[in-house]
Amino acid sequence: MNARTRVLVLMLPPAAMLLAFFVIPMVAMASFSFRAGSFGPERSILTLEAYRQFLANDAYQELLLRSTLIALQTSLLCVVLAYPVAYYLSFRAGERRSSLLTLLLVPAWTSFLLRVLAWKLILGSEGLLSSFLVSIGILAEPQPILLYSRAAVVVTLVYSWIPFVALPIFAALERMDRHLLEAAADLGCPPWHAFLRVTLPLSLPGVVAGFFFVFIPTLGEWVTPALVGGVRGTMYGSIIQDQFRSALNWPLGAVMSLVMLVMMLVLLFLFSRFTRALPLEDI
How many Å apart are CA 77 and CA 147, to the nearest integer? Predict the structure, then answer.
């Protein structure tokens, strides 16, 4: 078996899975966006009515913009909070690195739904946070803290995704040549300056990867807003889910999904161009 054949054989299983679980469903969803209805004879009628419904409803577009801002805010907070964790694990943890990495990953072994429900209990009227504030006299009686709000959605998402941001940053820091820091110190570079000119630029690929790990799934999130967001914390993914499950308006749900996908691809393209254009050598 020559090299080209080996490559084709190795690529065949993931290509088949990508075709079966991504390309074909995307084509089916795109075809539904041109249907007049979800079931019956209307399903065979081609029309642009679903696109007109979406464009005529400003609430859908405003919700998409708000969800994008929530996803950006969550991704940035995760990066800011996860970077010190990854830096400590890479440069300061020493022999405790494996144990701390395990502790970092333990919450991810628990069901995502259970973790969200735990935060619902923490932020609720009888939850840990409310009880603590009552005990120290800040609150006169138990009441929900942040629950059913945009802040509750952001807090819960940040908690859920921090481990997945810390790991790629940690991997990028581990690949870094430590002799560069020694050379910077020999040349009289203070530690904070060495961090800005050596460590941060070399870890930027991990930062970007962690940012995308959070931004992409968070933009279409609907479980967390449904459990802790309430009406004020509704996101775009919740409306899409309602169109498919409750309203049974599959064409409009397909249009909303495609619009979100296109906007996500555009943002990813812009972010990638921006990171490539950063003058890292001048930092």
Answer: 19
Lookup result for tokens 């209307």: 42
Q: Can you tell me whether residue 46 is helix, strand or coil?
A: strand
**pLDDT over 90 (residue 16):** yes
pLDDT in tens, 179-225: 888 888 888 888 888 898 889 988 988 998 899 999 999 998 888 99
Domain 57-282 belongs to what topology?
MetI-like fold (1.10.3720)
DSSP structure class, residue 267 = H
Residue ranges of domains in the chain? 57-282
Residues whose CB is less than 8 angstroms from the CB of residue 125 and which lie 6 or more positions away in sequence, other chains included: 142, 143, 144
Listed in sequence order, the DSSP H helices in the chain are 3-18, 24-32, 49-56, 58-91, 97-105, 112-123, 128-135, 150-175, 179-186, 191-194, 200-219, 223-224, 236-245, 250-277
Q: Which of 260, 243, 269, 251 is nearest to 40 (CA)?
A: 251
- Please give the pLDDT value at position 55: 92
Q: Is residue 93 within 8 Å of 173, Cβ to Cβ?
A: no
Closest CA to 266 of 204, 205, 215, 201: 215
